[in-house]
Amino acid sequence: MIEQISSFFNIEMIYLWLNFGVLPFWITLIFFPQSRTCSYLVTSVFPFFLLSLIYSYLLYLFFMNGYDFSSNFSLYLSLENLSTLFTENGFLLLLWIHFLAVNLFCGCWIVKDSLKLNISKYVTFFPLIITYFIGPIGIFIYWLIRMISAKKISLFD
Which of 59, 51, 33 is nearest to 112 (CA)? Predict the structure, then answer.
């Protein structure tokens, strides 16, 4: 059964499913942040559970193919070591899952925080779009909006 799954869910197919799979979460965050679907499905642990399952599946495939994980620790020694690690499409996909999960987590935080501070969903629209594409810049833009809305400067919360 695992062979059938792995023949269908190859690296390219997983990449496509990931890109289309996160869109419903982001659409819900951007357009329906106050809905029950958003609070129960999107801002819960559910999307991160799915992403971690896919991540674990890829690690399982690498392990079964005899990949030497101990050599990955050399990526911290130089940028060149990091770039050679990501010449492998599987590890590039792991990085992509990481990127999707972190940006989605940041988007969920923006929505929860804006609801807590009664910031309009129309105001958070732009930072959420930017967070989807460029996470840190979107968070910074939201932080500026949050400072203006709360009328106080706070570097931490």
Answer: 33
